Each structure stands twice: as C-alpha cells, then as structure tokens.
TrEMBL record:
Source species: Lentzea atacamensis
Pfam families with a match to the protein in the record: NmrA
NmrA-like domain location: 2-208
Domain of life: Bacteria
Lineage: Bacteria, Bacillati, Actinomycetota, Actinomycetes, Pseudonocardiales
Name the record gives this protein: Uncharacterized protein YbjT (DUF2867 family)
Length: 274
C-alpha cells in the first residue's frame, strides 16, 4: 500500500519515511521543494503545500501522516478541515497527525472524521537540542533559561517508528498518544550528556527570561511563538515532564535515551580546534 507523508523532510518526517520503508511500504513524500528533499531513491517525492490542499495528491493512498502546523514557525494550519475532506473523498483509511503543541483545526477535523485516526503528541523532540550545535562548536557553551525545568524528551526516531507502526498495522484508531523518552531531563542534564558523548567540556549558562526572549526575537521568531515557547518552559504542564510507556507499548521495545541520541549526533557538536 502507498502511504503519504507530509513534512517528509522534517526531523520527524524523515524518520516516518525511513520506518515505513523498513516495513516494506511504498512511500509518497510531500515537500515544498522536491529538489532539496534528499530522500531515498525508492521514495516518490512530490511537491505540495499543506496550506494549499489541492496540491496534496491523496489519490491511490491508503494511509497518511499529516502535521497540525503550517511550517517551522508553528503557525496554525487553517486548511486542516479541507485536507481531511479530500483524504476521505480519496479513500484514505488511516491517518496520523503530529501534534504541534495546541488543539488545532487539523486535529479537530481528524477526530471528527470517518478515518481511522491517531493523534501523536510528542512532548519535546530530542532533536531540538541541535539548535545549540553552533554555540557549542564555536563557544563550548549552551545558553538557555529555566535551569530546573525538566522535559520528557522523545527521540525523533521513536516518533517515526510509532507513526509507521500505527499506519501499517492498525489497531490504534480513535486514540491520542502522548510520546516521551525514558526520563525527564533538565537542560543542564542534556548538556552533560552531550559533553559526555563528545568528550569535550560544554558549559551551561543560564539566561534570564528577558535575555532568551530578546535572542529569539532577534533570530526572527514571531512574538506569539516566542511567548508560547517561553511559557511552555516556564510553566511546564505535568504532561511535559511525566514519562509514559507509549513508545514501548506500541513498538514492543524501550524508548531511546537522550544519551544515545547525543552519541548519534556527537559530530554535530564537536568543538572546533583553536
């Protein structure tokens, strides 16, 4: 069967594609720029934009992996209802939706549909730590606020594996799955794991909230997104730091650790010789 993966070049999307291929599925990957996709040659790569539902080719597809936001800026995807309507009309059977951190029109449309739907709610991607890579390479430090805040980070590979298992094997319809790793970690603990993986000393520098806000705004992030991200870290809801066994329940193996993730990505953080 053919499964369509939207956001196929993102941190989680690439993992969904890889896991589906490993399960012997045909994959149609949707991206805004096919020339830059760099996906395995057996993948059918097509250009499409979730904000323009008519560009998403649902024909001949039995399963779909969708996002609930419109891009890297976490903007709300208002076209969700039309995307779901088109998927239903095309005969799609199963659908997974990757949660963006808030209830969205996409999630509302999917859960009200006739499709066999599953919403995946990862609390925090381990791959988000890659935003520190340049600072670690150049300065040997990580600057972040809220040193004591813990997060039950999940490996993006586990997100992909759960999505693929749900789409291929079925039996998860009508469920919302919170996805976490095996432990809740603070930023200093994450930095320590990266330091151990690289074999190099990395300093953690605690920012004030105002310093973090100014830095994020200077990087071009919209103010409303900055407010959401800082609010989440400042007042972390219990689900953000509570470890749950969903990954192991679905996959039959333990969720992957941040220490393991850090070893996989040690090359991204290696400091440049001076």
């Amino acid at each position: 069967m053919t499964i369509l993966v939207a956001g196929a070049t993102g941190n989680a999307g690439r993992q969904v594609v890889g896991e589906l291929l490993a399960l012997g599925q045909q994959v149609r990957a949707v991206t805004r720029n096919a020339a830059l996709a760099r996906l395995p040659e057996q993948v059918e790569v097509v250009e499409g934009d979730l904000t323009r539902p008519e560009t998403i080719p649902f024909d001949g597809v039995t399963g779909v992996h969708l996002l609930s936001n419109a891009g890297a800026d976490y903007a709300e995807l208002l076209s969700g209802p039309e995307l779901v309507r088109r998927a239903e009309k095309a005969g799609v059977r199963r659908i997974t939706v990757l949660w963006s951190g808030y209830r969205s029109p996409m999630e509302e449309a999917v859960t009200a549909s006739s499709l066999e739907w599953t919403v995946l709610r990862p609390m925090d991607f381990m791959s988000n730590a890659l935003v520190w890579a340049e600072s670690v390479r150049e300065k040997g430090e990580v600057r972040e606020p809220f040193a004591g805040a813990r997060s039950a980070l999940v490996h993006e590979g586990d997100i992909g594996a759960v999505a693929a298992a749900v789409l291929v094997r079925g039996g998860h319809g009508g469920r919302t799955y919170t996805l976490t790793g095996p432990e809740a970690l603070t930023v200093p603990q994450q930095v320590a794991a990266i330091s151990a993986a690289t074999g190099q000393e990395i300093r953690y520098v605690e920012q004030s909230e105002d310093e973090a806000r100014a830095e994020m705004l200077a990087a071009g992030r919209p103010v409303e997104i900055v407010d959401v991200l800082l609010g989440w870290k400042r007042d972390m809801p219990a689900e953000g730091y509570t470890v749950v066994p969903t990954v192991e329940d679905v996959l039959g193996r333990p969720a992957r650790s941040f220490a393991g993730w850090a070893e996989e990505h040690a090359g991204d953080f290696r400091q440049r010789s001076r």
